Amino acid sequence: MQAVDRAVESLVETLRSVGELNNTVIVFSSDNGYSPGEHRFVGKNVLTEEVMQVPLLVRGPGIDHGTTSELPVTLVDLPATFTSLADVQPGWQLDGLSFTPTLRGRDQPFHDTTLVQTGDDGGDGWAYRGVRTTRYLYGVNGADGFLYDNLRDPHELINRYDDPGYLEIRALLEQRRLQLLSCRGWTCNGTFGLLPDPS
What we know:
Layout: H1 2-17, E1 26-28, E2 35-36, E3 42-43, H2 49-52, E4 57-59, H3 78-86, H4 100-103, E5 114-118, E6 128-132, E7 136-141, E8 144-149, H5 167-181
Antiparallel strand pairs: 1-4, 2-3, 5-6, 6-7, 7-8
């Protein structure tokens, strides 16, 4: 990490010396995280809150220093944001949604359900594919599945996948998952609305 710190310092100093630092947006992020034992998992190919929460730091003109946001952005939203910040039209269809208004300190509508996927099962490239909302995290891999209720179980300790009280929620989350798996462009960024409480 010291080598990374030095490289970043060198880049920032170069931008400052040529007078471009105040005209440049700098973004730090990562792919999914690594689990060193949470939930008895070791590795990257799982869908848990600890693995999905990755850093996203943005610095640049018009972005207030020290502000934070709970907007549920993913790496898919970065290309739309970058083209918006650069004020250019992309030459291809983008699936993500720009969060430039949030960076500028404004409220904005945003998708309420995010497609999440990870792992390599040797088939289509994904071990688990699911969706995440503010309250629920749901995913499947063949007959294996999980459903966590982060309101009642913020540490994701109880898998509700086979819980009879969550069958309706599971079915609705599966509908969202299937729709987001096949979406293209603007159809990936709609809102589905609130889910019911467990029965």
